Amino acid sequence: MQVQAMALAAQRHRQAERSRIDAALMRIDSGDYGWCARCGEEIEARRLDHTAATAMCLACAKEG
Asked: What GO terms are given for molecular function (predicted)?
């Protein structure tokens, strides 16, 4: 049973990551990639290098 729960959790994680990547690809297509979805400021290149699918700058991400 525990193995099944772990497999389900891993599948959910993969699906969530896929959703983040798909959203990032849509932002690239629309020209919004690299700009914070919350405050509209440019997302730092270092943050994008680390977390390419992020939609928010570090300050907004910390605010929750």
From this structure: zinc ion binding
Could you tell me the domains of the chain?
Answer: 2-63 (1.20.120.910)
Quick one: pLDDT band at residue 64, thresholds 50, 70, 90?
Answer: confident
Task: Kindly state the average pLDDT of the residues 6-30.
Answer: 97
Nearest to 57 by CA among 33, 30, 38: 38
For residues 12 and 53, what is the distance between their CA atoms, to the nearest angstrom? 17
pTM of the full predicted structure? Answer: 0.81
Task: Give the torsion sign (CA, 25, 30, 56, 16).
Answer: negative
